[in-house]
Amino acid sequence: MPLDYFLLVFVLSIPFWVFGGSRLPLPMDLPVSALMSVNPVIAASILCYKRNGFPGVKELFKKAVDAKRIPHKIWYLPILLLNPFIFFLSYAVMRLTGRPLPDPEIPWLAAPVFFILFFITAVAEELGWTGYALDPLQNRWGALQAGLVLGVIWQIWHLIPDAQLGQPVDWILWHRLGSVALRILIVWIYNNTRKSVFAAILVHATNNLSWSLFPNYGSHYDPFVTCLIYWLTAGIVIFAWGPKTLARFRFAREIRR
């Protein structure tokens, strides 16, 4: 288990937590401490350099553009559409259950700008969480347990920025639980795309983009509803692909027949 990596990420984040309580000048509600997203790749780079010098750091960064590893392009469907579909279902459930929702004002013209922003931050995070930390966890515990462990650590890391925004405890709880399920889904996609970190980056970026476009700029996002849908989706994946690898589709033979 890469304890040195996790400790380094948390230590590097302390200045962001201490001085990052104000809001970023963005339409969505994000604290300055959200800029700590650079720390996973910084921590991974430091440890790669310590062990293998600059070639090790170069190998780490090459993972951000490993799209050629994705063997079947059909995997771009869940990579790009899984998160938007889950947030659409969340909105539909809220509508059907009579939740008070404003008329959606989705900034479609700004969406590409948001995507670029979130893609950059996802690169910084996933080069660390997925590119550096995931495989040692999987080698020790298997895919599902690795996703759970990594997901919990990932979400504990986010708790202080949530508190700095003044989010209520139940909001934080459901949002973070849902994101643990998201991490399991990222591990599923990573393992089924021949361990493509680029795929994990896209999933992470589309999650943040979907949240930012949820009416309006995430202002009416209900993490309880979204959490339930994420865990339902993760449960289906665990059943269908198996917890050990999340990559052995149990119905493959039936489909071939």
Protein architecture, described:
With 257 residues, this protein is an all-alpha fold. The chain has one domain (3-256). Helices cover 70% and strands 0% of the residues. The protein contains ten helices and no strands. The chain has helices at residues 3-19, 39-62, 76-96, 111-141, 143-157, 159-164, 169-192, 197-213, 223-241, 252-256. Helix 3 crosses helix 9 (223-241), helix 5 (143-157) runs antiparallel to helix 7 and helix 7 runs parallel beside helix 9. The longest helix has 31 residues, at 111-141.
Write the layout of secondary structure elements.
Blueprint: H1 3-19, H2 39-62, H3 76-96, H4 111-141, H5 143-157, H6 159-164, H7 169-192, H8 197-213, H9 223-241, H10 252-256
